[in-house]
Amino acid sequence: MVLYRFLFAALGMLPVMLLHRGGRLRLSASELRVLLLCSVLGVPLQFLLQFHGLARTTVSHASLMVGAMPVLLAAAAAMFARERLNWLGWTALCGSTVGAALVTLGGNRTASGKEIPSMTGDMMVIVSLIIALAWILLSKKLMETHSPPVVTAYTILAGSGMLVVWVVGQWLASPLTHANVTPPPFVHVSMTAWAALAASGLLCTATTTLLWNWGIHHVPASRAGVFLNIEPVVGSVLGVQLLGEHLGPFAWFGGAFILGAAVTLTLHQHEPDPAIILE
Fold this sequence. Notes:
By secondary structure, the chain is mainly α. The chain has helices spanning 2-19, 29-54, 59-66, 69-80, 87-105, 118-142, 148-177, 191-218, 221-228, 230-243, 249-268, and strands at 108-109, 246-247.
């Protein structure tokens, strides 16, 4: 699923790469290493971990965990970008950590009442968020000297190539490794599934990554964190309303801690000079 999604995303990025400044990206050796690191972190590692985590937990749980991302951004800015967190910021960081623990340990049941082993899935989602944080910082560094659309296009294209090597390579090597690897399905995928993959690749991946990189290039990370708070709220509501998921009381309390910490941090901390954010 991740491979097909990013193949559609790469298809959507081709016009961006070719039309924006002729698609040229002149990189030094160090910048090329950063771009390749961005690609492997932002595409194969982040998304494979995230989707394996989603298979072991629920959309509601995963969405609530995303609420910790604004606080992680603020902590990373304090560590790597010379931003300083005041006592309110560190309190919010601790509150978000407590909330994540409550969500992870709070238990989760589907509409049928079957318990989902969410500990493994939630931890995989958390690790994918940390990887996403590294991708954001590295992308921000690249966009200091290169345009966001071209950086986005090359990152997605390189990451998609890495996904092809990982997924197809395991299948091709299975006769030698004697691993039980099934080939990627193609003929038996329904048109509805192909339409969903195309939409997720072109809209949810290519378009949103392009918009995110353009936005993070123009505004401070703390301000961008405010908009990240939309995802856990919408994701949790949709998971409960559309997918029949049920969150336990600890998960609701944990989600409230995470969202409260993120909103408090992003709305009340002093705004630093945008010129030094994540440089």
